[in-house]
Automatic annotation (TrEMBL):
InterPro entries named in the record: AAA+_ATPase (IPR003593), ABC_transporter-like_ATP-bd (IPR003439), ABC_transporter-like_CS (IPR017871), P-loop_NTPase (IPR027417)
PROSITE patterns according to UniProt: ABC_TRANSPORTER_1, ABC_TRANSPORTER_2
Superkingdom as given in the UniProt entry: Bacteria
Record key words, sorted: ATP-binding, Nucleotide-binding
Protein name according to UniProt: ABC transporter ATP-binding protein
Domain ABC transporter: 3-235
Gene source species: Prauserella alba
GO molecular-function terms, A-Z: ATP binding
Length: 265
């Protein structure tokens, strides 16, 4: 299923949070939103998972206006892992993941065998099976984040929207999550601050500045020292990943930077 934001503007109290934003994500593609704090990444994602309605412009799923779908039907197509999705009640991990089945389920009937299998598979994919009976409030930040990803997968969406999903994850789980996003076959739109992870994981990067897409293309076209400087006000060196060839950024920390031998000058 493909997703498009067509000339989307979101205004709140007379201020445009995103303006005239255009983005297309082909079926099965992984597209990263990158950009400075406050550039509109979360706002754009909220329009896709319908936490916000564009003031003008349209979000399209396979060419149809998402606003024409019932919320239940759009939740069958689009799942989100958000920055503010942490549960406040101490449900068990299994109960939280089973909430992902809600858009597919009528009434309060118990989940059937297939539904429970979908949830078990989702927990397995993000490595939280061993936490199944734990109260979610007792989990670490990274464990909780993986539970929320499992809940999104249990939704069996065609489109997965993730807002900074690597927050709280240790490096192994960051790598596992981004490898999974590359191979899951879903249409993925993901906001990421780590440009090296974004370059490794995404087919394309859309660079947001001041609420609109300023650049859009494959990581090797987009991640240039000039663009990083223009966008973030820092000028890294760009090296190539020795195996994949994707660009990787090396930052300079200034006069106190450690020397190669590991001691400060
Ligand atoms: N409900 C709101 N009311 C007013 N302003 C808002 C609201 N939500 C977001 N903003 C503002 O809109 C701008 C874009 O915010 P948004 O969260 O989309 O940026 P972001 O690129 O995701 O930032 P970050 O990288 O810090 O997560 C920011 O200046 C933010 O302060």
């Amino acid at each position: 299923m493909d997703v498009a934001l067509d000339d989307v503007t979101v205004e709140i109290a007379g201020t445009a949070l995103v303006r005239r934003l255009n983005l297309t994500v082909g079926a099965g593609d992984v597209v990263g939103l990158v950009g400075p704090n406050g550039s509109g990444k979360s706002t754009a994602l909220r329009c896709i998972y319908r936490a916000l309605e564009p003031t003008t412009g349209t979000v399209l799923l396979d060419g149809s206006d998402i606003g024409g779908l019932s919320l239940r039907n759009s939740a069958r197509a689009v799942a989100a892992v958000t920055q503010d999705g942490s549960p406040e009640l101490d449900f068990t991990v299994t109960e939280i993941v089973e909430l992902g089945r809600y858009p597919h389920h009528r009434g309060g009937a118990a989940l059937g065998r297939r539904e429970r299998d979908v949830c078990a598979e989702a927990m397995h994919r993000v490595g939280v099976t061993h936490l199944a009976d734990r109260g979610v409030l007792s989990l670490s930040g990274g464990e909780r984040q993986r539970v929320l990803i499992a809940r999104a997968l249990a939704q069996e969406p065609a489109v997965l929207v993730l807002d900074e999903p690597t927050n709280h994850l240790d490096v192994r789980h960051q790598v596992e999550l981004l490898s999974f996003l590359r191979t899951c076959g879903l249409t993925v739109v993901v906001a990421l601050h780590d440009l090296n992870l974004a370059a490794a994981a995404c087919d394309r990067l859309a660079v947001l500045r001041d609420g609109t897409v300023a650049d859009d293309g494959p990581p090797s076209d987009v991640l240039t020292p000039d663009l990083i400087d223009r966008t973030f006000g820092v000028r890294p060196d760009i090296v190539r990943h020795p195996v994949t060839g994707v660009p990787q950024l090396v930052y300079h920390l200034g006069p106190d930077e450690p020397t190669p031998g590991g001691t400060h000058p």
